[in-house]
Amino acid sequence: MAPFSDLNTTWFALIGLLWIGYFFLEGFDFGVAVVTPFVIKDETDRRLCLNAVGPVWDGNEVWLLVAGGAMFAAFPLWYARLFSGFYLALFLILVALIFRGVSFEFRGHDDRASWRRTWDVANFVGSLIPAVVWGVAFTDLVHGVPLSPGGHYYGGLPGLLHPIALVGGLASLAVFVFHGSLFLSLKTSGDVARRARRAAGYVGVAAVALLGGVVAWVTAADRPAVAGSVTAVLPLVLGIGAVAAIAVATVLVAARRDGWAFAATGLAIIAAMGAVFSRMFPLVLPASNRAANALTIAASASQHNTLAVMSIAAACFMPFVLAYQAWTYWVFRKRLARPVASTSTAAN
User: Cβ contacts of residue 93 below 8 Å, gap of 6+?
Assistant: First the structure.
């Protein structure tokens, strides 16, 4: 049973790493889309913001597909219970992501202002909704949800929207907007970069307060104890580390060290997700009402042979995926600037 248990834990950790990769990369995509209306003055500025993420946004979404696929293959019961219980929330995310993806492709097919405004709104809303709902969902997973003796969630959509989860959703939105504002300040130049840096300074303060509130609230919340759980110290240390990283990023923005600030927000996302998965362990679906109702890693995992084959496939193919994505970012590494004619026109 030892190898079986080891592979269970290994894949639980690997799925956590996949979610970290998704939120680190897609997080600044969401943030750029949400902050764009507040840092642009004209169509050229908007094009700069769209082009900042245009070459990479679809590659960033691959991490979501891989994370979902890994959950389905490694922990099919977790996948089934999560997608049935959280169906409406996840469906809302899916619809938002569809409209967001379409907005990148359709916006430039017509020059009418009304057409472009429609897809600009779709891009904004399609990024805002996932940024909030993902935070709500993962806060629910940390806090626990009401489960039946068979491990089925029965609270419906209203049961997911309790106060701590809503604060978690606002915290994730603030962190992603902070992360995206810094990415925009690094990828653009001139007035757009300055406005993005100014926006980052404001939203950074909100991110510290909201994320700090979630960490304190979750730590104080009473969740039924489960045998084999990681000591509460580790998730708390990681959560405090995430808040500290956001606070440091805010200071670095004020010092105009945008690159280091972006690294700090990325570190905060890593630490926050580390806190989520370490607090969940050894559960994949914690219960808020009765510990025995929770769904464990061991109970939801696939057979040993399945996990072994998945491990070999991951070891073979993941380096190519990482290399390709790194190459993409290298190719599109240069800052974007307004055309000289647009700058002159704006000055006149």
Answer: 129, 130, 133, 134
